[in-house]
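Thread: quick sanity check before group meeting

JM: Hey all, I'm pulling together slides for Thursday and realized we never actually wrote out the predicted structure for the chain we discussed last week. Dropping the sequence here so it's in one place. If anyone has concerns about the input, flag it before I start.
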Amino acid sequence: MFKQYSGLETLQKDGFQVFQEPSFMDIIKMYPKDLENIAKDSKDSDVFRTKLGDIKQIQNLNFGDLNQMLAQLIHKDKEFKVLNNQYFCKPPHYKETSAHQDNAYFESDSEVYTFWIPLQDVDVLNSCMFYVPGSHLKGLLEHKPIGTNVRVRTGTKGVSLYSDVYKNSDYVSVPMKVGQILAHDKNCMHFSSPNLSDEYRLAITAIIKFL
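JM (edit): ok, ran it. Output follows.
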């Protein structure tokens, strides 16, 4: 199990960190769980579904002021650019998300963080995140293609990627309570476990690049 430190110590040391910001609870309540209506208001190209038609992901949204608040968790005064806002929607009884580094998709030399905010409590049963502490310090590692569907992610077109550089025993689980915010470095290796529950596991995310 990971240890939570004060300030940004965990983020710098391990490559990921959970933030406990009480004011975020009210903000998170503003984000609806009515996925079909969110999908209906989005471009078809931004809505990805499973083979059974369940919504998996809704991309290229605009979370407005939330992005500013998230960016200030890392840097109070630095300018930033939002690469993507999205809903990650893991359907009930759905497989794990394969291990990868986000930077495998956009290969940036800039300072980039992903903010992952669950809309319910998450643990190993309903698909929490797993990380390899310190993996961000080794830079971008080898990835392999998985699947055949070509998608556009943060401006880069390609198939899904995974990495088998690390063993399962290298990863630590990060269960979270609703209202907490998880941030990870672009090069921190991670995956999410299967959703073994009967409900959707919903999370909103922001990928932010500092300029």
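AS: nice. The radius of gyration is 16 Å. Residues 84 and 207 are 5 Å apart (CA to CA).
JM: adding both to the slides.
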